[in-house]
Design goal:
heterodimer, A: alpha+beta, Rossmann fold, OB fold (Dihydrolipoamide Acetyltransferase, E2P), 2 domains, 23% helix, B: MetI-like fold, 77% helix
Chain lengths: 341, 262
């Protein structure tokens, strides 16, 4: 079932939002877009803080905002959990009182969330005692304590330490009964946490698709710039990581456990023959597709590592890149960044 | 920061301006007979009455003024500027004019007073309740100004946040708005109480000057000044002590300019 179904318009200052968006229960969608594209305004539409000017919004199958029919359900009657960018913790309440603020929360769930987000030592303190990462965890716990059917996260990882990112990512994974919409400007976060990416530009959805699809077929300059990154799931053991296909990748920094390896396409070097020198990861690949990406060409490769390289049009000629051509690909270990999965 | 000298000099003059009259009062105090004076009924009665009237007035001001300030700050009502000017009017109006206005509105033959009298047998002029009415009339704007200012300067983001968590508007008011407003409410209440304690003109016009019923400390002081200077001085000392006893502990916690950290 569609937890969020929106086809409507709204006005936020100078920006006219005109958005079609559906998010299914159990699905995590990342909303990506440049600054001022209307990402936060879209969340405000869903929370009920910004009413639609036209069209309709259904939440969990219930007509929630439809100005044409005079329907508007107030914020407190929507089952939403909102984690705003500036967190908005209640400064006069303790961490425990913040987490348990929602009338829908139960003491058991509140204690469980406080424990699993490692907030026990702060529970009786005021939010002023929290670091940025801790405050973010409190905000996430407070939203989850209401057991919302729709969870809205606005830039959840901004200024977060790695431990907080881990804790929050673990907690969000257990959300089969809710839909999660994650606003971010970080394509890595989008690719690693979302089932689907929606790109919002100037108030309109310009692309919607799986992370792979958005990466390999960017439709706008903005999408192309962020689609740039390859992400590969792997399990790390020290200086190496093994992908699902069994390919071993040498890392620049040691890591352990499930990870996402992020490789910028410009860091994928293509050669006629086995390259000399420092690259630690070298493999033979087949060109499957060439995509012009504005002033560059993206080369989609098949092989032990499905990956996209980005080269100049001149290099395409020199290397004789055509679909089906064999080529050597190389990535320096230091060009790979490791993100916890 | 080191203060510039001219600023310090002017500040010193301002302090002297406030302190000199107090010193003037203290140097004339009949300290030797003070014990006897303070035990007189002509002093204890106005004192108790003043505490009662100003205390009740402060409570009424909080009960009426909080929803009023909230409405003025947060609700789009037509003619809000005119309503606000009306609410603040008693601050500017000479209290005697205020008392006269109350008389024509709530007096025995007043606009509303005649019905109060006919239906409920309720007469306000020359009663302690009338003194409270006069005190509330002059003190209300001081409270509204303090609380409305705090509501306007704070954004309503936290209230919106609370709403998304499923809290009904009354719950948001109780758990978020009011607790965060407490410092401003305390400050406004202190100002309103001080104004009510010092109230003279509207009280004497509307409620009269009946010992034990409407003769508060300022009225008793003014009257004693004509007949018994020592008693007037003792009454002044009592007002001074009562005012300081309430204002000094409030200064740190509640008066404006010392907001607790967010």
């Amino acid at each position: 079932m569609s937890a969020i179904h929106l086809a409507g318009t709204a006005r936020a200052g100078d920006l006219e939002l005109d958005v079609e968006l559906s998010v299914a229960t159990g699905e995590t969608v990342a909303l990506l877009g440049p600054n001022g594209a209307g990402k936060t305004s879209l969340l405000r539409v869903l929370t009920g803080l910004l009413p639609l000017t036209g069209g309709h919004l259904d939440l969990s199958g219930r007509a929630t905002d439809a100005p044409g029919q005079g329907v508007f359900v107030e914020s407190h009657r929507r089952s939403i959990g909102w984690v705003p960018q500036d967190r908005l913790l209640f400064p006069h309440l303790t961490v425990r009182q913040n987490v348990g603020f929602s009338p829908h929360s139960t003491p058991e769930l509140v204690e469980h969330l406080i424990g699993s987000l490692d907030l026990t030592s702060l529970a009786d303190k005021l939010p002023t005692a929290c670091s940025g990462g801790q405050a973010q965890r409190v905000a996430v716990a407070r939203a989850l304590a209401a057991e919302p059917q729709v969870l809205l996260l606005d830039e959840p990882s901004t200024a977060l330490d790695i431990d907080s990112q881990h804790l929050i990512a673990d907690l969000l994974r257990g959300g089969d009964e809710r839909a999660t919409l994650l606003v971010t400007h970080d394509p890595v976060e989008a690719a690693t946490t979302a089932d689907r990416i929606v790109i919002l530009e100037n108030g309109h959805v310009t692309h919607s698709g799986s992370p792979v699809e958005v990466r390999t077929r960017p439709r706008t300059r903005y999408a192309a710039s962020l689609a740039g990154l390859n992400t590969i799931a792997a399990v790390a053991t020290g200086r190496t990581a093994t992908t699902a296909d069994g390919t071993i990748v040498v890392l620049g920094e040691p890591a352990t456990g499930p990870v996402h390896l992020v490789v910028p396409p410009v860091a994928v070097a293509l050669h006629h023959s086995v390259p000399d020198g420092s690259p630690r990861n070298v493999w033979e690949a087949t060109v499957t597709e060439l995509q012009p990406a504005f002033d560059r060409v993206r080369v989609v490769l098949d092989g032990p590592l499905p990956i996209v390289a980005e080269v100049t049009p001149a290099a395409v000629d020199v290397l004789g890149l055509v679909p089906g051509a064999g080529i050597w690909a190389a990535v320096k270990a230091t060009e790979i960044t490791v993100h916890p999965a | 920061m080191r203060a510039p000298r001219p600023v310090l000099a002017v500040a010193a003059i301002a302090i002297a301006y406030v302190a000199l009259p107090v010193l003037g009062l203290l140097q004339r105090m009949p300290w030797s007979s003070m014990g006897d004076l303070l035990a007189r009924e002509s002093i204890t009665r106005p004192l108790l009455l003043s505490l009662l009237v100003s205390g009740i007035a402060a409570l009424v001001v909080v009960i009426l003024g909080t929803p009023l300030a909230w409405t003025l700050a947060r609700v789009e009502i037509p003619g809000r500027r005119i309503i606000r000017a009306l609410v603040l009017l008693p601050m500017v109006l000479p209290p005697v004019v205020g008392g006269t206005a109350l008389l024509f509105a709530l007096g025995r033959r007043g606009l509303v007073g005649q019905w109060l009298d006919r239906w409920f047998g309720l007469t306000l002029p020359f009663t302690t309740a009338g003194a409270v009415v006069a005190a509330v009339f002059v003190a209300l704007p001081f409270y509204v100004i303090a609380v409305e200012g705090a509501l306007e300067s704070g954004s309503d983001e936290l209230e919106q946040m609370a709403g998304t968590l499923g809290a009904e508007p009354m719950r948001v008011l109780r758990r978020i708005t009011l607790p965060r407003l407490l410092p401003a409410m305390g400050a406004g209440m202190a100002l309103a109480w001080a104004r009510a304690l010092g109230e003279f003109g509207a009280t004497i016009t509307f409620a009269g000057n009946l010992p034990g019923r409407t003769q508060t400390l300022p009225l008793a002081t003014f009257l004693a000044l004509e007949s018994d200077t020592e008693e007037a001085l003792a009454l002044s000392l009592v007002m001074l002590i009562v005012s300081l006893a309430v204002l000094i502990p409030m200064r740190d916690r509640w008066l404006p300019g010392r907001r607790p950290e967010r």
